[in-house]
Amino acid sequence: MSLKRRLPFLRWSVLRMATGARNITTTGQIGDGREAAAVDYVLANARAGDIDDVLARIDEFAYEKSLLINIGDEKGALLDTAVQRAQPALALELGTYCGYSALRIARAAPAARIYSIELAEANAANARRIWAHAGVADRVTCVVGTVGDGGRTLDVLAAQHGFGAGALDFLFIDHDKDAYLPDLQAILDRGWLRAGAIAVADNVKVPGAPRYREYMRAQQGARWDTIEHRTHVEYQSLVTDLVLESEFLG
Q1: Is 174 a catalytic residue?
Q2: Is residue 175 within 8 Å of 147, Cβ to Cβ?
Q3: 70-248 maps to which CATH number?
Q4: Local structure of residue 220 (DSSP, 8 states)
Q5: What are phi and psi for residue 241, nearest 5 degrees?
Q6: Strand 113-118 relative to strand 90-94: parallel, antiparallel, unpaired?
């Protein structure tokens, strides 16, 4: 791995990202157009209908052009393994961004129906273009909204997309870090997770979701069985991170 790839602070796109960090929680984007540029790059360079090539081109863009805040290739491999372990028929993602992680879920679970909740319509539009180019638009759906909107988005999933008691096999959490625990609790309150379902949470160390980690530690062996994967923040090997993989015990 080149020094530029290993050390993120040598990349101008990382410095630009720091100045736009305040945009992420309100707009879902860095604010310099990198997300739309990533989609254009993928559509121009990736083979249509080839999930592997689409994922590779997104990774390439994030390393060589502008850093992206999706889960990335190193942590993405952990996500792949967890999805394969769950063998989901129904999967839910919180935080779509450019559609990268949903695409990894679709590749690891080719029979699954996948739903992704996204705050920003612009991100939803970008992700849908990515999914269409990869050939998975028929089984990956983005729902614009938030879990914390008083139940409206969860009601849509229940009324229109078949979410109900014990129906959910896999949950991936990668959105507003402060919302990890309350959003998980809202899903638990609906009774959607089946016993044996897997929940994966990214960025538990950086930027950090301490309340979520504390909850999983407190519930170890009771409601959840959690593995903490020590890894690195996306697209570099300097800053360490945690991915939590938790099996719901019921």
Answers
A1: yes
A2: no
A3: 3.40.50.150
A4: B
A5: -145, 175
A6: parallel
Catalytic residue chosen out of the listed positions 73, 93, 169, 174: 174
Residue the block writes with tokens 């949950």: 171
SS percent in the chain: helix, strand, coil, step 5? 50, 20, 30
Report pLDDT for 13. 46
Query: What gap in Å lies between CA 163 and CA 23, rounded to an integer?
Result: 31
Is 178 assigned a catalytic role?
A: no
Active-site pick, 202, 241, 245, 247 = 202
pLDDT for 24: 67
Report pLDDT for 137. Answer: 98
| Residue pLDDT, tens place only, 127-172 | 999 999 999 999 999 999 999 999 999 999 999 999 999 999 999 9
Q: Is the distance from CB of 198 to CB of 109 less than 8 angstroms?
A: no
Chain-centre distance for alpha carbon 72:
10
Q: Where are the domains of the chain?
A: 70-248
Tell me which long-range contacts 210-214 makes (C-beta under 8 A, separation of at least 24): 211/178, 211/180, 211/181, 212/173, 212/177, 212/180, 212/181, 212/184, 212/244, 213/242, 213/244
